[in-house]
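Researcher: We're teaching a course module on how sequence relates to structure. For the next exercise, students receive a sequence and then see the predicted structure as tokens, so they can try to spot secondary structure elements on their own. Here is the exercise chain.
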Amino acid sequence: LNIKWVQELASECNPIVRAAFVHQIGQYPANYLISLDEVSKDDRTYAWLWGRAPLGECVEQHDPFVCKRHLSMLAAMALDQGIIAARVVEGLFTHQTFYEFLCDDLIGFFI
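Model: And here is the predicted structure for the students to work with:
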């Protein structure tokens, strides 16, 4: 994904399709909807993604190259209760760690 592609997708949004989605999802109560979000952090997180340079010159970027801990967090949020489950792992989430989050943390919340 890049910014240009995301902006192009946003400009092509069809209001009829969006209204159909809102109508379809509106049949469920708010407490049935859960949002999941993943975030990662390492020492390079706050490095600039885009640089600026005078016309005709290349951008030079000097960021730290580190091989330290990389942390990832996955959180589930319900509209009526806030964050209901969260898990932090060292490294990236894999299929297995995501599945464990769903089974142990998220489904365990409802049992």
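Model: If you want an answer key for the exercise: The first strand starts at residue 34 and ends at 41. Strands lie at 34-41, 71-78, 82-90.
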